[in-house]
Predict the structure.
Amino acid sequence: MRESNLRHMIRDVKEGRLGRREFVARMAALGIAAPMAGTLLMHAGVATAQSSSFQYKPTKRGGGGVLKMLFWQAPTLLNPHFAAGTKDQEACRLFYEPLAGWDAEGNLRAILASEIPSNENGGVSKDGLSVIWKLKSNVTWHDGRRFSADDCVFTWRYCSDPATTAVNITTFQGVKVEKVDDLTIRVSFARPTPFWADAFVGARGVILPKHIFEPYIGAPARDAGANGKPVGTGPYKFTSFKPGDFLSAAINPNYHAPNRPHFDSVEIKGGGDAVSAARAVLQAAEYDFAPNLQVEDEILRKLEEGGKGRAEFIESGNIEFIAIQHADPFTDVDGERSHPNTRHPILSDKAVRDALNLLVDRGAIEKYIYGRAGLATANFINNPKRFRSQKTKWEFNLAAANKVLDAAGWTRGADGVRTKGGRKLQLTLQTSINAPRQKAQAVVKQAFQKAGIALDLKQIAASVFFSTDPGNGDTYQHFYSDLEMIQATVNGPDPALLTSQFCSWAMASKSNRWQGRNITRWKSEAYDRAFDAAQQEIDPVKRAELFIRMNELVVEDVAVIPVVYRPSTAGVRADLRAPLSGWDNNLWLISDWYREV
Amino acid sequence: MFNFVLRRLLIAIPSLLGISAILYCILAVAPGDPFGDLATNPAVPAEVIASLRAKFGLDDPPWLRYAHWLLAMFQGDWGYSFVSRVEVGHLILQRLPTTLFVVGISQVLAMAVALPVGVYAAVRPYSLFDHLASAMAFVGFSLPTFFTGVLLIMLFSIQLGWLPLVYQADLPETGWAWFAAQIRQSLMPIMVLALFQCASWTRYIRSAVLDVAYLDYVTTARAKGLGEFKVVLRHIVRNSLIPVITLVALQIPAIFGGAIVTEQIFRVPGIGSLLISSILANDTPVVMAVTFVFACLVVGFNILADLAYGWVDPRIKND
């Protein structure tokens, strides 16, 4: 899609000829995720819509009783900047808040900020080098002290200090935060930054109280008592916490938004497995909410039959895909396999990759394995069902795959397996131990067999597959096999993080202890150039065009085979009204949750 | 006897050291590490992970880490959990009461049922009662706890809605309401564990009683004119309990280990679930602490069992 087309569409939205939601959906079909689409519109001056589908009804604070949540992956610590995964981030959102959060449609919503900065109100500077945030004036911390710009500046110093080893360090490094006055801060960037909504926004931008954490900046950070006893600005105040087991919180009577929150207390119980969590919410209605239900859709449907609860599928950027190893996983170079300087003897043949792409039956995988929790896609970035891009579409075509392989010189041997130049078309597909993944592996193997490709399947325990141990060859980053099936988790709304994993300088190898993001060891000069250009592009429309092009490059060269895009699944009790978001934590707007009587 | 105890304790020290060394080796060799979650997060730079590894000493050679750990242990410092940064001793103590309550009561209940049933079945062998008891016992220990647990949940929580399916360590109620709520939520996990344990103990007690019931002195007691009840209680049961006491003494450490599967199913926050989640998260300090405590308990109760055996059976001399 050309830049001019994009500008036309944006103008249509501004002048009311095209619905905002339709624009966002079309952008998603091209590979631009919702928050980026929202940023495009914001930049063009299209007024931000409030999440119109969700209305907060209660007219007074409290009175809602207890909100009981079941996190089968139990939270273990309560400092959001040390959170290892989303489970800890979610628990922290009861207590801590950022300046703004992302709603389900990719709009920014002010939480601790008094308004969202934009070109019109002078918040976003024209040169893209700084953003001015105005803070709400009536906010107090749970211990009564006033919230002010000092806390924002402190959070920036805390997170950007390498000695603190905060996991959100990249959000705050490379920016400078200054206090303009007690209720105003200026965030300055070294380079023009079109996607400025990163620092202090969403899951990674939560603000800590200076007066509590000041003595714990840097090396002593992990010893702070407040890591287990949070004091925040959020709608609920900390009561008790047993790591890995139970968290309880009580209503904050001085919360800064009127009539909120609705519930008098919140309890988060942790542990167990996903299926019993789904059962507890959907079938027994013993709990109100359970996030991240990695349960087969078939089981969810059965549990929903009682009508006591519903499974909600929240659109997010997560994508399940088959990564293709472009280096040689079976040749040792200096004690290292899958070395970036080697090329795969079979998979560097584009014809083979095209054939593989045609042999993955995404439709069957969606229909019989993931159901509503996995929607077939051809794009690496995002693709909802209704709008399919003409350029990148997926197809399951056995005959076409056979033709491609025949034309490329891969002839069938006596045992049915294709060979070329004495080399058999034999591949290994590895993945973590996870029932839907094993089923998907079986589906893929069957189709490959029909086309004359012999596929070995390998399963590795999740705690090993996803570990960071440099000495262990079974991790997904070492990628010592031909193919692997994994999920790319999109933690933040900016596609830059997701797309950095195809840059040739980021290849995972021994030299960077396999921490490089490019695990496929794919190389493309065109992609590298586009990525560099996108990093420096101020104009968000041009930047969007670059991302679309990058998505097309990845898909056309079959660097990876996208399989299904995974909305996140949550179980919600029938009478609970909760605005969930896939671009931020589920509990991003916990202040607005209520029970419909 | 004092010499005996002293000797056993002295022998126990090198065994415990050996156990801890083996445990540490296994953990060091095992794949995976505590920062797996961070690895899949694209936003966490490699430097942060590297400095975290250095901070927690994960890059040191295993023998050095073991030496550090041992030294700290002698000073009473059990370290901090990698995952939650809470002191390990604190974590264990948080979970201990729940474990003792659920698993302890299930063991007591199991014994309270197994003893009379086993004795009666043995005293009336091959009668209807005996057949029924044996059948129930076989059913009880053939069915794994994850099966009976889920079965009970489906019946009592889903279908009937009488009992909650998730166990909460901190109940908000007070007074009698708390008591009632506690009974309601612990009923199912306790029943599941008790059933399993009771089944195997019934069979064991039955065979122990059978060994004794046909000995000469029992016949003599009956011939003397003692009532059946007295014969059973004072002569048969007391003597057949000797091996049973040993069995129970050796079983007590298992109470502390928790019932791992049942705790997962019912979400009971006990030591078993702490152990499993720490193993899966490669949280070395917690795993070492829990398994070491368990090892100490096993060794300790072994000594106790030997002592008890020597005390109960006057034919045994411990020196």
Q: What stands out?
A: The mean pLDDT of chain B is 86. Residues 175-213 of chain B form the longest helix (39 residues). Chain B touches chain A through 52 residues (CB under 8 Å).
